[in-house]
Amino acid sequence: MRDPLRDIGCGTTAPNIRVRSTYTGDLAPAGSAAEGPLRVIEWLLLLLPVAAASGWWAARRSDARRGSAGSSSDPAFFRGLNYLLDEQPDKAIDVFVKLAEVDGETAETHLALGSLFRRRGEVDRAIRIHQNLVSRPNLSKEQRGYALFELGQDYMRAGLFDRAESMFAELVELKLHRRRALEGLREIYQQEKDWTRCLEVAEQLQSLTGEPVRSETAQYHCELAEEALELGKRERALAHLCRAQKVDSHCVRATMLQAQMAVGQGDSRAAVMHYLRVAEQGPQFLPEILPDLLDAYRRSGREDELAELKRLYRDFPSPALVLLLADAIQAEEGDEAAIAFLVEYLSGYADLTSLERLLALYAPKLADDGRTRATFDAALTVVAHLRAHRPHHQCEHCGFVARRLHWQCPSCKQWESIKPVQPEPIGKHADAATSQRIT
Ligand SMILES: [Zn+2]
């Protein structure tokens, strides 16, 4: 049997050629503008394959009874067609599904129809069709597996997670479609924030596929560490963070949590060490920890703050660091030095935040005439507006824009894919970035 799930669930080819060839409308995803009540012609296109299968089955049954050449003349078949023409699709579905008793030859048609309904957002109808399939005793084990998976998908779409969980758990037990069933279970447990079960499923997935799931496993441990911290279970939290770093040595979140725990313990030196490690693991995350890093730095009794900021800037230039450094340079070396620093930085990065600071620093030096002042103020207003409306955080996987850091993207559900937006390199840095991409 061909793999209908691959065809209708994840691929581009419908399992039943008749469905594909007759249906020319949008196979729109949930929530798209194409969803909504179906027109009668769309109902016809969707249900005709089932009607055809029903008619064929009815004819075959009739032939068997009469022992003569027959046709799709079963009255129920025409009753179903009439329901379609009268725009009563639910009644038509009932007739056709009842008429075309599910067997090995019509199961694919039902699977295709159910999948199409779900894609159209008609989840109730998809559930009815797939429930009907699952309840049939004459399906092969493989066909039952497909039907269970589809029904699980329907329940997920309807938000009935407990029922979806039963479907996927049964598939795992039957050793059918285990990978997709385990991925379904993982999605459910993530939605329910059941991180312990997420870990169990991640382990099962890893042993099934042989592919490491390091990043997700580390994030589940971080979630459990945060839960433990909320309960005041410091040792348990530390144990989870150690395990997170053991499975994923690049896990920025685990290091950030270790730094926060050190701050909570009043151990500023350890906190500085952890925060500096964050800068090495993920320089893009530096804006997230910079104020805390400086605070821990001051508390640890170090006095060479400007030198430390300059060192950090050399290794990890970022807008938040540039602003702090500009302030420190202005305080220690004066306005001219701060302006020169910002001009140098802006020659390499198109950063609105730093440009706004540069303009503000330069404002007192303008010629004292109304026209110059008005021109400058207009430019400053535009820059401030653009800076205020730029995205702060963005998912590198799906492009979702967020105002704050999320460890799991609310849109595509990827872990650690949302990062602070970096300014585009220009001038010499753009050339370097281009040559890096080419090599
Ligand atoms: Zn995303």
Any overview of this molecule?
A hairpin with a 5-residue loop joins strand 2 and strand 3 (401-402). 69% of the residues lie in helices and 3% in strands. The longest helix is centred in the first third of the chain and has 27 residues, at 40-66. It folds into four domains: 4-205, Alpha Horseshoe (Serine Threonine Protein Phosphatase 5, Tetratricopeptide repeat), CATH 1.25.40.10; 212-303, Alpha Horseshoe (Serine Threonine Protein Phosphatase 5, Tetratricopeptide repeat); 304-388, no CATH class; 391-439, no CATH class. The model is unreliable at 1-37 and 62-72 (pLDDT under 50). The chain has 22 helices and five strands. With 439 residues, it is mainly alpha-helical. The chain has helices spanning 4-10, 17-22, 40-66, 75-85, 89-99, 107-119, 123-134, 141-158, 161-174, 178-191, 195-209, 214-230, 234-247, 252-264, 268-281, 286-299, 305-315, 319-333, 335-346, 352-362, 370-389, 427-438; strands at residues 349-350, 393-395, 401-402, 418-420, 424-425. The chain has a three-stranded antiparallel beta sheet with strand order 3-2-4, with no helix packed on it. Zinc ion binds at residues 395, 397-398, 400, 409, 411-412, 414, 417. Zinc ion (ZN) is lined by residues 395, 397-398, 400, 409, 411-412, 414, 417.
